[in-house]
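Structure in, sequence out. Go:
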């Protein structure tokens, strides 16, 4: 394990904040390679913790802004970045109007806490701002679900949600020994490139997701039966025929493009 670096600063990890600190240099290497920041970008890092990735981001010359909930990291992070480049508190609680104004194209990254990784991704994709790229380290299962295509055994509501707003692909997988304390599960890098959507189109897709979630709540059931039962006023059989969707299809057999057509009501 030549890539593992032991860090000296000791702050006891809080499980409630999803703190598994990175000790594997391959992770910042991969995030940096995929994010490709330079002085022409502004980079937001969510959950910098003790700064394992932050130091490397600073070296790229990009404008950096950090979002961290745990004030015990104050000394470490204020040693790395000016105070005004750090927002303390729960990233999910920050209103869109209170986010920093960026004068350059935005990139977003982070080794996200497991308990709210999915919510952070959904917040960016649904509410913005829309970065040029987002590169996160996440629970492997979440990164997989967010990036697989239709008919894959892991294809789920999150796959459709992500595909409605972005192109996503999975990077390398890292085991528990890449972090202290060791998490119980593997982690993977997820690369998200948002689509350029108008506000109106984005709102429409958010509405359509309500129907998609009805189907995935009963993912073992035949989609046509669920729709006929839940929304009887619509001729779903005719729509399925028109769109070439098999009448026996389950939610995992319907592509994001087909969902957009199906619920374009
Ligand atoms: N980036 C560091 C690393 O790789 O070693 C820390 C990663 S650790 C998995 C997650 C970090 O997110 C922690 O520093 C934690 O305090 C922070 N965090 C947890 N919940 C947060 C939230 N809601 N908003 C902002 N930061 C959060």
């Amino acid at each position: 394990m030549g890539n593992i670096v032991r860090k000296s600063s000791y702050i006891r990890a809080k499980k409630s904040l999803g703190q598994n600190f990175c000790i594997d240099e391959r992770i910042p290497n991969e995030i940096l390679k995929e994010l490709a920041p330079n002085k022409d970008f502004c980079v937001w890092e969510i959950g910098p913790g003790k700064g394992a990735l932050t130091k490397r981001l600073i070296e790229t010359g990009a404008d950096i802004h950090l979002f961290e909930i745990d004030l015990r990291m104050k000394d470490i992070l204020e040693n790395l970045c000016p105070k005004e480049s750090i927002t303390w508190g729960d990233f999910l609680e920050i209103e869109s109007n209170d986010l920093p104004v960026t004068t350059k194209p935005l990139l977003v990254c982070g080794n996200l806490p497991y308990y709210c990784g999915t919510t952070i991704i959904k917040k960016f994709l649904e509410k913005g701002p829309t970065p040029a790229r987002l590169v996160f380290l996440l629970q492997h299962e979440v990164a997989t679900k967010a990036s697989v295509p239709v008919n894959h055994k892991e294809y789920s509501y999150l796959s459709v949600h992500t595909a409605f707003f972005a192109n996503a692909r999975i990077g390398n997988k890292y085991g528990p020994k890449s972090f202290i304390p060791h998490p119980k599960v593997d982690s993977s890098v997820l690369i998200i490139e948002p689509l350029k959507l108008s506000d109106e189109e984005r709102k429409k897709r958010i509405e359509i997701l309500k129907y998609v979630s009805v189907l995935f709540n009963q993912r073992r059931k035949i989609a046509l039966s669920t729709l006929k039962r839940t929304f009887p006023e619509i001729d779903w059989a005719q729509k399925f025929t028109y769109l070439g969707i098999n009448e026996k299809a389950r939610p995992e057999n319907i592509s994001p493009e087909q969902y957009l057509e199906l619920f374009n009501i």
